[in-house]
Amino acid sequence: MIILGIETSCDETGIALFHTEKGLLSQALYSQIEMHNEYGGVVPELASRDHINRVLPLIKQNLQLAQIDLNQINAIAYTQGPGLAGALLVGASIANALAFSMRIPILEIHHLEGHLLSPLLTNPSITFPFIALLVSGGHTQLIRVDNVAQYEILGETVDDAAGEAFDKTAKLLGLGYPGGKSLALLAEKGKSGRFAFPRPMRNSGDFNFSFSGLKTAVQTLVKNIETTDQTKADIALAFQEAVVDILVEKSLTALTHCGLRDLVVAGGVGANLQLRKQITLEATKLGASVHFPELAFCTDNGAMIAFAGAMRIMKNVNCDTHQHAHYDYTVKARWNLETTL
Ligand code: KG4
Ligand code: ZN
After folding, report:
1. CB under 6 Å to ligand 1: residues?
2. Nearest in space to 266 (alpha carbons), one of 239, 303, 233
């Protein structure tokens, strides 16, 4: 079976074709980052309008890359939520219109399910159950994953997401949007030990996180000292160290708590090399393994949505409910991952 994946939940239009036997056939991505950078963050209405222009050309590009015809697609998977309502509606409308005209099934995918299953896209040897650390611009969650659609949220952020904290701190240091990657690059030039930021909720006794205080600590510091290039790099490093420490510590505690040996790290912040290094090192000491998606599949993309659709079809999970007996569809700007079954 060939599944078309459509991702339009935020500022990336991601389209891909996944074959249930042959794997990923093609993928193409258009990032709106440059457009939003001018405003220091995502402008929802601009995002929706841009998705409208990108989806169909990217689908055509995928068909060419995979060398298949539109009528060879057997199902369409699209991100139904969570995300920006207008942006989601673009993907939902096109997905539903296409599926209706082709009389093929449609799969409504939770964006975070796409992220947390993404390491399995290139590494099918990862087996359930596992713990997933999901760290993106909008979410920070520790999830026990027993199977496709069997998710238990162990803990999550009570305020800013890890990626959001990276972005806000990057802004304070005069870096562009989104700032996670540039902050990580700047941190490479930093000297360790000059600044120390708090590790919020380290001893909270649960699996929740809090990052807004960390950003405030950086804000207070930046206001009170002269920020030379070296100082900015030192701050970036100290900030990254604090975030990584907390993420690593809570993830390993979750592994031990659940008696599991496999940890999946997914979402945009999962591209952070320091996080990858430290979490692998510490997990190895525990005899556990850490799995990451390929860097290209860490941030938003269509492949993870097509793949999540394929997994649902292969596992026969909630995938034959929507055969277009009706014309209505909806998007879910907010959507609890535990309710996707
Ligand atoms: O998963 P994603 O592409 O989009 C959401 O679903 O939110 O994640 C984007 C987030 C942004 O906050 C971005 O700054 C962060 O991931 N990010 C990073 C790195 N690359 C992307 N954060 C830290 N280090 C990185 N290398
Ligand atoms: Zn995402």
Report:
1. 10, 136-138, 163, 166-167, 178-181, 184, 267-269, 271-272, 299-300
2. 303
